[in-house]
Predict the structure.
Amino acid sequence: MTADMSIAKPLPIAEGDIRVSGLLQAPPDARACFVLAHGAGAGMTHPFMAAVASGLAARGIATLRYQFPYMEQRSKRPDPPKVAQATVRAAIAAAAQALPGLPLVAGGKSFGGRMTSQAQAASPLTGVRGLAFLGFPLHPAGRPSRERADHLFEVRILMLFLQGTRDALASLGELEPVCAALGERATLKLFADADHSFHVPRRSGRTDAQVLDEVLDAFAVWVDEVIAG
């Protein structure tokens, strides 16, 4: 591991038919690793993903960012769930090998978080202690529904939902009842005025960077609770 927490080191991920790129960012004092999947429209090097990784490194949490195959191939069409879920599993295995003994949590931004939760629901992810979602995409914009939450009830580990109150892909009228029904497994943290990308309007009196700090502070507190068991 590099002593410079600002540097992300390439970590190729290969398992079965999966061959994708990864970036490992691990501070020397890391107490956990977040296996972090990107959203549908932007890959692991997007500024938001880089900011999350650097912000977590500053909080003593390593990250392994990785690409889904379609993003690696510069396609605009996301992979089928089976391929995406296999990629999630390959990335988790790579993180466990790179950082042996470090507690793992998994999840990601939007699509990446949902593919991770679907993989966990289908069959438990080896060594993963909890799932964290940076904007869970509960439904398409303007079409409130809870159907995409059905698989979450098959997840038996802790889940953290980090959501903006203006998220068009997760109306609070749908999301809050889902989290309540999940019971103690689910923790919902809301960020006032933030949208699906955690952007806030100027009238909020806060910057996007300040909101991301709030998000990552909440994530770090939750990770400590997961580690403590």
